[in-house]
Amino acid sequence: MKIGPQFKRGWARIMGKRNALASATAQWLGQRATRLMLFPFGKEHVELPTPIRVGTKTLDVVDDLTRFTSLPPEQVHALLMRRPENFRSEWLMLPPELRQDTWYYLSSRTYLFANAVHIHDAPQLIDAVATAAPTGGRILELGDGQPLPCARGERASRLTTWNSLRFRRISRAFGSDDTVFRRTCGSSTGGLRWTRRATTLCVPWTSFEHIPDLPETLERVVNALADGGALVESSPFVVNESNPMHHDDPGFDDLLRAHALDLAHAADDHRVWRKSPR
């Protein structure tokens, strides 16, 4: 039996409608699945970050993100408040074999919005870092809020690009003449070039808990820190539903002390360590 062109066109329309229905159904189910994944955090409330002042400069993360992403302001607001999806639903949607440090941060489309508000959540930390920052010194920034995948050629992640631009603005407000922004490779620092004892301030902000090879990373960081230099950190080693991508504490404080770092100041939201001469 010969199939005519009219039948072929009719069949093509049927198949097209079937495929469209399948796509629409999958989209509907995906949206409901995301809501279900975020059900345990239904009462979580994230305030929109307000602008903060650093010296004579104003840092407005909402405006920066709107410009950086080209998204409408109302969409940026929603993503900052972790709706309709966030880094947790992304993590849960990934197959377990893809939940790797490198790929998760490189591929994430929402972790940027969670990461960008850390300093705004606790603006008093600006003063803490500014107090430890030497005038005209060299700052080594490791992650600016979270560790980042390394840039291979031009393939830098959105998070890396955002944080690099963001931190340079903050460091200039501190009066630093030289800022080194280190991208971590696979949430580690393998393959990066470090200048020995060339850094006077290191700011690994909520970064170390994301790094799987922490002893190796700390050795590089401490070697890059000058004698008397400061390390200002906040490292919540907690693995739970809220932060499933964290790593457990490998004995962080003991590792720092083994590298001649002494605790100089401890607050509820940060600690300052100083490197002793060897």
Folded structure, characterized:
The chain is an alpha/beta fold and 278 residues long. It has a single domain (52-275), classed as Rossmann fold. 42% of the residues lie in helices and 15% in strands. The strands form 2 sheets. A 6-stranded mixed sheet has the order 4-3-5-6-8-7. It has a two-stranded antiparallel ribbon with strand order 1-2. A hairpin with a 4-residue loop joins strand 7 and strand 8. Helix 2 (61-69) packs across helix 3 (73-80). The longest helix is centred in the N-terminal third of the chain and has 33 residues, at 5-37. The protein is elongated. Mean pLDDT is 77; it is low at 144-162 and 164-193.
Largest sheet: 6 strands, mixed
Question: Averaging pLDDT over every residue, what do you get?
Answer: 77
CATH class: Alpha Beta
Give me the count of strands.
8
**What is the radius of gyration computed over CA atoms, rounded to a whole number of angstroms?**
23 Å
Structural class computed from helices and strand pairing: alpha/beta
Strand order of the largest sheet: 4-3-5-6-8-7
